[in-house]
Design brief:
Elements (H helix, E strand, L loop, with lengths): L28 E6 L5 E10 L6 E11 L15 E7 L13 E8 L2 H4 L18 E7 L5 E9 L4 E11 L51 H5 L1
Antiparallel strand pairs: 1-8, 2-7, 3-6, 3-8, 4-5, 4-7
């Protein structure tokens, strides 16, 4: 990744800061939105997104806090909320299970051990204290389109989420190598000789005096004085 949701809408732009084609201008940007009470599934419609023949990548930026901390046993306790992104029918046309005729392309289940940012003051949080800004990458398969929906599955801990916008990216092409490794490397034959395990000692050569270089002390004086 990798990978929250909300937004999958804008899609298919080559530059991260550009608007995504085929999506609502405000898709991915919204104020604090509550998932609902305990033990239920709720749905937010985020807008519609047209089809594209190519895969698209979306980065959704957001922050959140989690409710019902004290009622669930305190900080880090309880069952974390799950949220997902779907494409398909609008919430008004869904069946009771909220999942009819829809394609889920991304989901996240929070880890309360490390990702519990409580809304409850009794757990050290507040209504305006949120997690650090999150950025989740969501891949939209080619050909997927329809209403973009954020689905919350809540047990005992619900969630408030603030949408901070969407960035769109086209998938980066794989680099092309001009030279690659040989598919079937050629083996090298063993050398004809190997280093000697126990090298042979070589005796030092004896040196002999040069017969033409006689020390002066050995030459008779009568010859030197002649």
């Amino acid at each position: 990744m990798k990978v929250f949701a909300l937004l999958i809408a804008l899609i298919g732009c080559a530059a991260a800061s550009e608007e995504c084609a085929g999506a609502s201008n405000d898709l991915g940007t919204f104020p604090d939105s509550r998932s609902g009470d305990q033990n239920r599934v709720t749905v937010m419609d985020l807008g519609t997104l047209g089809s594209d023949s190519a895969q698209r990548n979306v980065f959704f930026n957001y922050k959140y806090n989690i409710g019902f901390c004290e009622m669930s046993g305190g900080l880090g306790a309880g069952t974390a909320p799950t949220f997902s992104i779907q494409f398909g029918n609008s919430a008004a046309n869904l069946g009771a299970d909220h999942l009819y005729d829809n394609v889920t392309i991304w989901h996240r289940h929070l880890n309360l051990t490390t990702e519990d940012y409580p809304k409850d003051m009794s757990c050290g949080g507040s209504a305006t204290t949120y997690s650090p800004v999150q950025s989740s990458e969501i891949t939209i398969p080619a050909g997927v389109s329809g209403t973009v929906r954020l689905v919350f599955t809540i047990a005992d801990r619900n969630i408030h989420i603030v949408g901070l916008g969407v960035e769109c990216h086209s998938p980066s092409p794989m680099p092309t190598l001009s030279h690659g490794p040989t598919a079937n490397p050629t083996s090298t034959a063993n050398p004809t000789s190997w280093p000697t395990a126990s090298p042979t000692k070589v005796k030092a050569k004896k040196t002999f005096p040069d017969p033409f270089r006689i020390p002066l002390s050995r030459i008779p004086s009568n010859i030197l004085s002649a």
